[in-house]
Queue: 2 jobs
Job 1
Amino acid sequence: MSKSLLISLVFAALCCLGLAYVGKNDPSAGGGLFPRCMFHHATDLYCPGCGGTRAAHALANFRIGEAFRQNLLLMTLAALFVWAAGLKTLAGLSRRSYRGPSFRFPVVAAYFLPLVVVLFWVLRNIPGWPFELLAPR
């Protein structure tokens, strides 16, 4: 087993354990060791991560629609990450016999992703429809 495959599998196991913990402890009810968002507490505005823990809780309890309503950007990026990590792990498990699709992170995304995060941050704090749909609810 290659070192990168081992790291991928350990990371996946840790993610599953973390998701199980979040799924068992409802952050909305004050369960678990979840910190409050200091940015939201200080400014009453939503940061790009606001609703992320509640989204993970909903995802762990198979409420996919609710998870996307809590934090659309985080859930979209998580889905892309799981897809890419799955392809990478599948390629690592099958070694040279793997002929399926692969995922490479484009360099332009390193510049584009921070802009998307800032745009999401600004848009989710604009009152009124349709921007209020981006706020955690």
Job 2
Amino acid sequence: AALVTSAFHMPRALRLASRAGLNVEPFPADWRIAESALAPWEVLVPSIDALWNGSIALREYIALSLDRRDGGPAR
């Protein structure tokens, strides 16, 4: 089966699919632009996107650490 989700969510989604015994192929969506592809001045200027991306990552790390749907301790 194709597993399509946000690239940020893919590690957790793959773990849940594995727990459920599903054989999936990951197809991550909404990739972020690599810093190396940006103009040099864009790296120095703070942006709202940087704050948003940081909050997305933080929520995903918290979700990964607190996910106990398999009944055992979080990974």
